[in-house]
Amino acid sequence: MALRLKFDRLRSLRPDVAVVQECARSWRLDCTGHDWIGFNPDKGLGIFTFGDLLLTR
Question: Is residue 26 part of a domain?
Answer without folding.
Answer: yes
